[in-house]
Specification:
Layout: E1 7-11, H1 26-33, E2 37-40, H2 43-52, E3 63-66, H3 73-79, H4 81-84, E4 89-92, H5 104-113, E5 117-120, H6 126-134, E6 141-146, H7 151-168, E7 171-175, H8 181-191, E8 197-202, E9 210-215, H9 216-220, E10 231-236
Parallel strand pairs: 1-4, 1-5, 2-3, 2-4, 6-7
Antiparallel strand pairs: 7-10, 8-9, 8-10
Helix pairs in contact: 3-5, 7-8
Length: about 240
């Protein structure tokens, strides 16, 4: 690998409007402060993050290039060309750790194809934080991203994942667009067996954080509204 090439830094960001110093290590903050080229999922949230960490350079002097869910490997390769000439860059997700349930994974793939050094930095991941807080199996788990939207298709997917969890002693993890949280929760309560355990972790690392792990039967007997808060759903059948 050529020593003249720049590095691709995976810079985690906060999961919400919180002080970055409370959830990010100094090494990640220092790495971000030394960069002036960022590949970002969303320019507005990236500028807010860079402002909040008090980036030493004026924001207008920083180069931010958008790389979102509609971007492809060709664009990723093009955006990494400056790194072949020695410039380093940072990937910023809209929230949490880049390249995990995030389009930045294509940038990382392109970097490896180009023999560019990839440097991951420690920071929050809602998926892992939720798994840690759930009390479910942390030795064997699967992240499925978003479930299908049509209710009947979603229900079948849930039943299949519940069966797989029981047969393989596996925690199943999902996310949902916040405005669909309550619809997904209701489908989970309708589709799953009463003894299956469900965890909903919302607003992780924020002052409004809540984590509840209970059986489906227990969920049905209590409050079942989540609201439009970023949430992670975990299912565990034994």
């Amino acid at each position: 690998m050529s020593s003249t090439r720049g590095d691709l830094h995976l810079i985690p960001v906060t999961l919400g409007d919180t002080d970055a110093r409370l959830s990010l290590p100094s090494s990640a903050l220092q790495a971000a402060a030394e960069l002036d080229y960022f590949l970002v999922e969303n320019e507005k949230s990236a500028r807010l993050f860079l402002k909040n960490i008090a980036h030493p350079r004026p924001l207008q002097e920083l180069q931010l290039e958008r790389f979102d869910k509609d971007s492809d490997l060709e664009r990723a390769t093009a955006l990494l060309q400056p790194l072949l000439a020695g410039r380093s860059a940072g990937i910023l997700s809209e929230a949490g750790s880049p390249a995990v349930a995030d389009p930045g994974a294509l940038l990382v793939e392109a970097a490896h194809r180009l023999n560019i050094r990839v440097v991951p930095h420690v920071g929050p991941s809602a998926i892992l934080l939720a798994l840690m807080a759930s009390g479910f199996n942390g030795q064997r788990f699967a992240f499925h991203g978003y479930l299908p939207v049509p209710k009947d298709v979603c229900r079948r997917a849930i039943v299949a994942r519940e069966r797989e969890s029981r047969e393989q002693d596996m925690t199943q993890i999902f996310i949902e667009t916040p405005y669909r949280n309550d619809a997904l929760l209701q489908t989970l309560l309708e589709a799953c067996q009463g003894k299956t355990r469900l965890c909903v972790a919302s607003d992780l690392t924020l002052a409004s954080e809540s984590v509840r792990s209970a059986t489906i039967a227990e969920w049905k007997s209590g409050k079942t509204e989540i609201g439009r808060r970023p949430s992670v759903f975990l299912l565990y059948a034994r």
